[in-house]
Task: structure prediction
Amino acid sequence: MPPRDEPTAPTEAAAAKRSYHVEALAKGLRLLALFSEQRTTMKLTDMAAETGVPLPTAFRMAATLVTEGFLEQLPDGAYRPAPKVLTLGFSALRGMDLVELADGPLRRLAAASGQTVNLGTLSDDRVLYLIRLRNNDLVTANIQVGSRLPAAGTSIGKVLLAGLAEKELDQRLTEASFAGITGPNAIRSLAGLRPALAEIREQGWAVQDEELAYGLRSVAAPVRDASGAVVAAVNVAVPAMEFPVARLHDELRPPLLDACGEITRLLGGR
Result:
């Protein structure tokens, strides 16, 4: 017979965790999380509605964040993130082993190819861009570090999705995951995407051929950790007019695979 206090241990642990939870701080963080690349400003009424707090509470939260330098209020009364938020984001990125270790190989890849190089990870059904080394000739995509784009429409995203188990793929992707993919060759459903992911999984790289947007092509390959799991992907992005798919494959895929292999080895993988 188990000791009498064993059944209560999980309950006690959960209660202890709750005792450390500062709800006011959590609400403020949830408010900051409402902002995104697609929604750069917000009215106070929207903040209150989406965080589920009364309007006076939302006002106090926003006023505190303004005072602390994390939000700023615009002349029309709306709020937007202040520069102090960016310093937190960049500090987090710089503290990641992946970003630090990938920097050198990606800079060499960008210099050798003369093209735009990106590194990203999967965030829900989106690609989160962690490194972007931009060639100024690439004017078809307005992407920055911290941008989140639909994974199903990007070469990085397709590599990362191909690394998922089928069950997790089903959980991550919905019809909404294909919104914002506007290119002429876009795949617009999970059923249509599955054969492409199977091919990517087999060959170990992916091409984006004017799927995300018109005039943009890219080729991507995976970065793996010591366990062999795909933890990130790198792409080389080019203007479609200058790089047909065959040229992308022949000229840029080999140095891309070399760079991803180097990063993988630095992370302890093979």
Summary: The radius of gyration is 22 Å. The chain has a mean pLDDT of 85. The longest strand covers residues 230-239.
